Amino acid sequence: MDLLIRFAKMEDAEELLALYTPYVTDTVITFEYEVPSLEEFKDRMRQTMKKYPYLVAEQNGEILGYSCAGPFKGRAAYDWAVETTIYIRKDRQKTGVGKKLYEALEKVLHAQNICNLYACIGYPEVEDEYLTKNSAQFHAHLGYRMVGEFYHCGYKFDRWYNMVWMEKLLDPEIKHPKPIKWMEENREELEAVL
């Protein structure tokens, strides 16, 4: 069966949290220490879905990954910039699911008149069992470029890790961006983009 990319529903929360949990407990891909409760995870989803797309990749009724966007900074001048996030089920990494999710996310963000995408990525000085450079390589493959590295800024599993920012400009030549189409007010139009 083909891969389906669709907008997340609140009923997906438990499955999404199960997918996210090993990233918290076994990796430094997220700097989060504790697995959020289901209610906290649902609240995060609700907050995101007010303004931004929250997408899942599904095959044969199983969720293989999810991707979403969130505010880059909390000032109006940054409305045209978002931070992107993606998590793929461990057994489905390097199968093209992530690329398809991010391509769909970009389509919706572009339809929202978002111009700039940013990814905050854990980055090891030396790869180990908790963190490799795979995420940065994945983003680079999709057209993101490295714009900054912070040293020893994340501490997890009794080790220091670096963090990098990568960016992708959807409309690098735009002089006067159009108003943002937030998800809540434009859901039907934006969901039709997929």
TrEMBL record:
Keywords: Acyltransferase, Transferase. The gene is bar. The keyword Acyltransferase applies. Residues 3-171 form the N-acetyltransferase domain. It is an enzyme of class 2 (transferase). Its EC number is 2.3.1.183. InterPro entries: Acyl_CoA_acyltransferase, GNAT_dom. SUPFAM superfamilies: Acyl-CoA N-acyltransferases (Nat). This is Phosphinothricin N-acetyltransferase. One of its GO terms (molecular function) is phosphinothricin N-acetyltransferase activity. PANTHER family: N-ACETYLTRANSFERASE, UPF0039 PROTEIN C11D3.02C. The keyword Ligase does not apply.
